[in-house]
Amino acid sequence: MIDRHHGWNISFKPVILGFILSLVLIAAMHRIAIRHHLEGTLFLLTVFGLAAAQAIIQLVFFFQVGLESKPRWSLVTFLFMVLVIFVIIGGSIWIMDNLNYNVMPPMGH
Amino acid sequence: MIQPQATLHESYPDTHHDIYSKTVFGFWVYLVTDFMLFASLFAAYIVLRNNTFGGPSSKDIFELTSATTQSVILLTSSLTSGLAGAFAHRKNKQMTILLFALTFLLGIVFTWMELKDLTHLIQGGNSWQRSAFLSMVFTVIGTHALHMFFALLWLIALIIPVCIEGVSSISIRRLTCLKMFWQFLNMVWIFIFTIVYFT
């Protein structure tokens, strides 16, 4: 139910649905970590994939990102945030990893 | 809800609804910038996570079951705050107060668990001074706990007027912002849970 004045905020269904889906994803993350199904990079990719899925579910079901009518200013600000975060996190990891590699003396293992 | 006719609505803009949607959008922009703050902390954490200086690493100090319990508690409080917001929009005073009170209790339990983890680290001699890794653990989790603390204070400040004079249009607007803030804190926690407890 989309109310003209209250939007999606008046409706119960998306909140409950988002809660159930998030709960399933948390359980999946917990199980993967406890049972050691996956190792190394595959484990990290799966865990981050599940976290990203949960974030997207909550953005859509709780914040209604992308469901507003045009002009979609909330979506535009959100996508700009994603770009900035990509630059901050991606750039930091990239630069600092190279820095560690180039500056640190070789350690005896 | 009786809907005003669309033509009437457009020729005479509803100034009250304008204030509501502008407030909600402005608050959304604040949440986005706040997430950038957390993202820069995550970046620092990821860069420094192996700099343990001979101290404990993330595998030594974190307990997954406790972290999962915290996630579920915070997610449940996010659900109750969402339902409370929907009841506020329906001007249902009792259910709004009841569900926000439930949100408050779950928030208290979550923040207590969060701070308990940090005090355990300090008692074990692993405070933020021990290593760069532990500095970032305290910064990331501490910043989230500080947000939780102010969200709890804000909840008390908003629910008192609702108890006294019921759900007004002003309180709907404020409670919607509070609900968004609460759900935002839950989203930030997903990433803390993933980055700090899993990597």
Order of helices and strands of chain A: HHH
Q: Tell me what portion of residues of chain A adopts beta-strand conformation.
A: under 5%
Oligomer: heterodimer
Number of helices of chain B: 7
- Low-confidence parts of chain A lasting 5 or more residues at pLDDT below 50? none
Distance between the termini of chain B: 49 Å
Helix content range of the residues of chain B, please?
Answer: over 70%
Q: How is the CATH topology of one domain in chain B named?
A: Four Helix Bundle (Hemerythrin (Met), subunit A)
What best-fitting shape of chain B do the alpha-carbon axes yield? elongated
Number of strands of chain A: 0
Question: What is the strand content of chain B?
Answer: under 5%
Query: How would you describe the shape of chain A?
Result: flat
Order of helices and strands of chain B: HHHHHHH
CATH architecture of one domain in chain B: Up-down Bundle
**Biggest interface and which pair forms it?**
A-B, 42 and 48 residues
**Any idea what the radius of gyration of chain A is?**
20 Å
What about the largest sheet of chain B? none
Helix/strand-derived class of chain B?
Answer: mainly alpha
